[in-house]
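Preliminary data (for renewal application), uridine-diphosphate-N-acetylglucosamine complex.
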Amino acid sequence: MDQIRKKVLVVFGTRPEAIKMCPVVRELKTSESLETVVCVTGQHREMLKQVLDIFHVVPDFDLDIMRAGQDLYDVTNAVLSGMRDILSRVKPDIVLVHGDTSTAYATAVAAFFQKIPVGHVEAGLRTGDLYSPFPEEFNRQSISIVAGYHFAPTETAKNNLIREGKDPSAIYITGNTGIDALFTTVRKDFTHPILDWAKGSRLLVITAHRRENLGDPMRSMFRGIRRILEEFDDVKAVYPIHLNPAVRAVADEEFRGCSRIRLIEPLPADEFHNFLAASTLILTDSGGIQEEAPSLGKPVLVMRDTTERPEGVEAGTLLLTGTGEEGIYSSCRALLTDPAFYQKMSQASNPYGDGKASQRIREILEKEL
Ligand code: UD1
Ligand code: UDP
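Predicted structure:
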């Protein structure tokens, strides 16, 4: 039996990839016809471990590449050469990568060098601007060139791939595996000391980490938020800060002395999802949160100039504010003072999936490999 099992190597390295790939790993492990091997690159360390612990996924290989202050060359080099050896040892029938990180890009290239088929989970997202988000738009477009299986979360993503000339028979609409995770984490009875602190106030949940926003754009984002906190005495904010020291330095400086915001360590995903569910609104430059919030019916101010998630904008839950202080302040103010506007942005919808994306991916691989 073992000889005919096809070998799937699942590779990921950062927090968002882990949140969206652990449900896939768990689902693949239920298959009798597939053997699943997990390799983490360790592009993230603590933030990756948090997710592996929650989902009880134990990697077979860990490249452990993270270095403080790593740049794109460091990550790409380390993953590319690390994966050369892993691929030679494991000899998988297919390599699954996720999304648009440097881990995903370098792994796809490494697999291509050994002519191993690549399956791309969360394929087909596009802004069309190679510098926004940077370098993610380049990464995702490049992965689509080498991928033989495109697992697109939505019809829009599928159409993006078809427009680029990809073979329609290799594109599968699965939904987003991040929603699979979300369906397992949000609980009505969730409590947390920070939520107790915010009780009676309207709660803003904030995250920001994008490479292209480091420095001045981030500074102006935080100034816009600070103005809100100083103006509305019934509003509090919590910001679980990404472990990148370049983000922390600006946040510490811009929010110094502001008693209505709590800057905390990154939350485990299950806790973070419950924070989203308890919030009044969310301000973020994250990708994954733009998918989670519509399911929870929470308005999101997307502190970016572009988004690859137009479905959430169309559903009315996401609003692009740019990174400028004024745009963020005025959009946030409008949401806090105009109940009709708030109501319009709070309609729950599920443009990104029904929680069964991982199951579909398993079924497709069982059939096609
Ligand atoms: C990476 C991805 C980005 C994704 C983000 C999710 C690339 C190019 N970027 O960006 O697409 O949105 O992850 O969070 O792949 N750090 C720690 N511990 C951790 C994680 C990070 O200390 O667990 C610090 C390290 O100093 C590290 C720095 O954060 O050098 C930056 O990490 P890196 O993965 O290079 O970039 P991100 O901005 O996290
Ligand atoms: N997230 C988390 N803890 C936090 C903040 C975010 O678990 O303190 C989760 C969030 O729910 C989403 C994912 O991390 O699933 C988004 O990751 P991130 O913003 O780091 O990356 P992106 O999605 O922008 O690539």
